[in-house]
Each structure stands twice: as C-alpha cells, then as structure tokens.
Amino acid sequence: MKYLIIVILLISSNVLLGQEDIYPIYKGCDAASETTLASCFNQNLTKDVLAEFKVPNSVTSDNYKGTINVIFLVTKTGEFEVLYVRSAYKELEAEAKRVFALLPKAQPATYNGRAIDMRFGLPIQIPLGSQPTPGKITKEVTKENVVVNTPTTSVTPPTTPIPLNSNTQKKDIQTAVVSTYFPEHQSELNIPFSHSTYDELSYYFDQNENSHTGFKPFLYSETSKYVDLDLQKTSLFKKKSSKWGKKLWNEHFFKVQKEDYWFTIDPLFDLQIGKDNSNDVDYTYNNTRAIQIQGGLGKNFNFSASIYESQGRFADYVNDFARANKPTESYGLVPSRGKAKIFKTNSFDYPVAEAYLTYTPSKFFNFQFGHGKNFVGDGYRSLMLSDAASSYPHLKISTQFWKIKYTNTWMWLDDVRPSVNVDNISARKFVAMHHLSYNVTKRLNVSLFEAAITKKSENNGFDINYFNPIIFYRAVEFSRGSRGGNAIIGLGTKYKVSDNFSTYTQFVLDELTIGKIFDGSGYWANKFGIQVGAKYYNAFNVDNLYLQGEFNVVRPYTFSHKDPILNYAHYNQPLGHPWGSNFWEFVAIARYKKDRWFGSAKINMGNKGFDINGLNYGGNIYQSYEDRTGDNGIELLQGNNTRIFIADLQGGYLVNPATNTKLFAGITFRKFNPAQAITDTAIDNSTWFTFGLKADLFNWYFDF
User: Fold this and answer.
1) Which of 234, 474, 574, 632 has the fewest CB atoms within 10 Å distance of its CB?
2) How does pLDDT run across 463-493, given as a tens digit for each residue?
3) How far is residue 408's CA from residue 541's CA, in Å, rounded to a whole number?
4) Cis peptide leading into 267, omega within 30 of 0?
5) Closest CA relative to residue 447, chosen from 387, 407, 394
6) Which of 677, 657, 681 lies closest to 235 in space, CA to CA?
7) DSSP designation for 514
8) Which pLDDT score is estimated for 244?
9) In Å, what is the CA distance from 1 to each residue of 5, 7, 8, 10, 431?
10) pTM of the model
C-alpha cells in the first residue's frame, strides 16, 4: 500500500511540475499541442491584423518603407492591450492601436493552471505586401530563463512567440523592446534602495538557483535577468491620451533615447505634513524638492545624479535626536540624511546631493564611484553595513562568476563631533570592506565580511595596504597597532526553505577572547552581534502578502574603539544597526499590495542599556571603551535599561511607477520607557500622524 501511495505522489508531482506556461488560444485554434497553439496563434493573429490594417494616406504619399513594432499583452482576461508602438509616424501608431482594439478576445495564457498576462511583439512591415508569411514556431524552454512573477504581474515567455524570419525583423524587435519607457531597466545603474521595493525584488531573485541578494543596491541589468521590470510597470499604466497625463501617471518627465545614448530628467518630491502629540510645535512637515538625472553612454557606462533641497520639522523625539547629535557648525543632524542649518521656527534646512558613475566592462565586473549608500545583508537591519547613516563617497568593485559574487568597497567617512574638528573641518576616516557571497548549494548561501577602519593623520591618508582587493584586513590592522585601525569581521547565511520562504543570519565579531567566552566572567572584550530572521512571500497563499520577522542582539562596547574616531560610525550615526550596541530588538513587518494600492505594518520592540551618571556602559559607540565600567561582569542591557516599542502603520497609492512616487498616510506610535528617567533619557510616549506625496527612493529610519 505504501508503495502505491509513493507511485501516486510521484505521478502527481510530475503532473504538477509539468504544468508550466501554455500560450493563449486565439480564434480558429485548438489546444491539441503547445507547438500547434503557438504557430496557430502567430498565423491567425498576423492574418487578422493585416486584414484590418489600413495604411494612412500621409504614409503612402511619402512612399514610406519600414517596420513598425507593436508590443502587446494578452491579458489574464483574454483582452489585447497595446503596451508600446514604435513608429516614425503617429498615424501608424494610432492605426495599430485601433486594429488591436478590434481583435476578438482570446483564451488567456496559463502558468501552472492559473491565467496570466503574456507579452508579445509583432513587427508590421510597410508596405503591407512585404510582410513575410508567419512560419512554424519551435519553442525551447529551460528552467533558468523562465521569468515567473506573482499573479498581479506577468510572465515573459522565454522565446518570442512571433517568428523572426529575417535579421532585419529580429533587429527591429530587439530595438522596439529596448526602446521602452524605462531605458534604465537595461542599464548598469542601481535600483534605488527602499525596503518596500527590495522585499519584492528579493522574491524574484530567490526563484533562481544562483542569485546573490546579500549586497545592495542591485543593478538593473542584474535584476532584469530574474524579473521583467518593464512589464511590472507597464501593467500598472493608466490609459491616458494627453502628454501630461502620461507623464504624471506613467512615464519619466523628460526622456531622450537614441541608439547609443539616453538620459532622463525627473522632478522629485517629498511633501509631508502631520502632527505629533507634543506641544512644542503646531505641526510637523517635510518639504523636499529634487531633481534626478540619469543616463547612459553606450551599453556599459551610466551615470546618475540626484539633488535634494529640503526643509523639515519632525516628531519631537526626532528633533531632539537631530539637535543632540549636531555636527560642527550646524543646527542639527537629520537622521539618515545629514547636516542641517536652522530654518524658521525649530526647523531644519538640509540639502543632500547623491551621484555616481558606473561602468561594466564585461559580464564579470562592475565599477562604481560616487556619493551614496550601500547595505549588506538580507534583513531589515544590518549589523555589517546599513543605510542608516548619511551618504558618503565610495569606490565599489563587484566581481561575479560561477557561484561567487565578491564586492570591494572603499569609503571616505567623517567624524563630525565638534571635539575632533580642526579649523572647523571634520576629522576624516576611512573604511575598506570586502564581502564574499558564495552559493554553496541551490538553496544555501554563505557570505564572509570584513571591514577595516583607519583615520587620517598628519602624514597619511587612506593606507595603501587597504587597497589590496584580496587580503585579510585583520592582519594589516594587527601589524600597524591597535591605534592604527579597527577591524570587524562577519559571517552571513541565507537558506531558501522553499520558493516562498527563506531564513537569514548575520554574526559580526568586533573582538573575542576565546578562553573567556564560556567561563561565566562576562569579559568586556567579547564584543559581537547576532541577527536571525525569516521572510515569507505570498504568505498563507495570499498573493503579494509579505511577512518578515527578525531578531537582533549586540553586546556592550561592540563597534566602539579606544580612540572613538576609529569606531564603526559615520556622521554621528552607526554604520551598522542604528541602535549602536548593548541592546536586543525584535522586528515584525507585514506588507501587501494590490495593483497601485499598498499597505504596511511594522513593529519594533526591544531593550537598550544607556549610559547613566557619567559612566560608559557600552551603549554609546562614540565613547572610548577605555572608560568602561570594568573588565568582567559585563552584561547585556547594563546601565539605564530602557524598553522601546514602536508601531508604524502606512498605506497609500502609487502615483507614478517611473519615479516610485506615492500618495501615503501613516501613523507611528513610540513608547520609550527608561528604568531611570533623567534629562538625556526621559520617558516619552509619542504618536505621530503624517500624510503626503513622496518619491520612495530611499529609507527613512525613525525607529530608534
């Protein structure tokens, strides 16, 4: 009996696995075989389009000869929807749209038994008599090149369903596909890093057996191997006929695209207004106007520049943080953004500029130099490198081959404390970093991380030893002496339990004394942090429901140094977890989206030990660990043990997919409850409501 059950299960699994993609069924076709369906769809559709197509008189009078390319969908309801028409004549574009609107409904394509959208390309040669006869299609499918999206998006077939009967036609189809509304999708630019965007992208990466998600941001060219980015956005397009309607709801504000170069210009906004429960100000707000310029020269060289002009006033606890951590000659430090001057009443004026150049000379290498941020890990937080601090200049080299992705990053950072500035110039520090990601199996990824922090002295800048791209920095740091640098190493893992569920970990080691780990002494120099988390996509079989849980713990004095300028921080903010050290934290996140609508909920809860009575208990990484409270008996949460609870709820509507501009509203509740309420660490219960319009291109971190 048990063998019969096994046989039935094997047969059932093979049947289920065999249910991959099936072409749409057009009129006059049947479902006898997939090859017959493909050829019949191609032949009958082409025949009907050409029979109805009428070449406009203006085109005929010009004796025009050429090809127009129509990119269209057969939707999951069987409708024909034109996505894009490439033609030298507006009249031909209008005629193509008219003809496709008249086509009869088809039976939609399916994937694993579910109706899906499927995209096609049809070249129409003018004059019509020169159109070649469609031929038989031979479909070749490999598991690696099937791009599967969630049911609210679409599936791109691995081969073009329309036959390519000549090199000219093939070139026209390729040109039409590349000349999309979004030329950046085929570029070497970075996809702007926001958690809401990357939580979705990571799902598509995880469907592939040899992808790497541990170093962010991702390149567009890298991501396009796993998901049809064009179709994700065009499927959301609103049907607008006016030029300004299209630019408002669907497209880039300004785009120029030629055969060997392109660029786009977009105005960006982050306009918010709200109110917290404090009596210090009547309202909170943020007023950001920005411009973003992106482009490419040739196939391998791209550039991006974003300039933000901002003024804002935030919830009271955020304003207090900004003023308490103000850099030299400033009014404050806006979290994650940077230095600010005073603006009107208790407000901050904080300009930000980010830009970079990116070059990919071959499929193995990418070089970037610019001013921005990076992120290491698969979690909401990172103990290795987060984007919670301000932007910084950096040089990055990414190398990818076989099962390996290896990233070198060199960063120029600033210690902006007034006590270390010279002639009103902040102290310069440097970080050299390696991240090696290796896919051990189809499901298991292991990564190694190391970073070395050095400072500028009168006689040296960035130590040449740290420019070696393949080296263990700990040896260099040891050879130069403890005041010559600070080294941090780490280990990360990711395991894909299934296509919809994955787990991840990080272990970061600042310093360790092996003989005193388990002796119960609580030795101060055992400085490390641990992260454990899990992600669940399409949770409980609900499409586009995303769940994440994460636990972080960092021991006292981790990331600090005897010389505070060598700590693991930049611009008065940690480079790792924004809580610094001496804490534990649990994060729970839920996200859901439907078409252009979205919603999210996030909870942060934990405890952190703050310094008290002038004593360094290991929670402030800008304090020298030489001033510690002792060598032994060092415990987690020592000092002023503070309970922190933050709940954040947001929802909204995507206005423009080209710039990820959203209308949103949100409410944040924060409860900050120290064991001893003192001036620097007071009890605070904040409720902050805000709404507005913003381009969601980076992460705000107000959960501290």
Assistant:
1) 632
2) 777 777 776 656 665 566 555 689 999 999 9
3) 39
4) no
5) 407
6) 657
7) G
8) 93
9) 6, 10, 11, 14, 64
10) 0.78
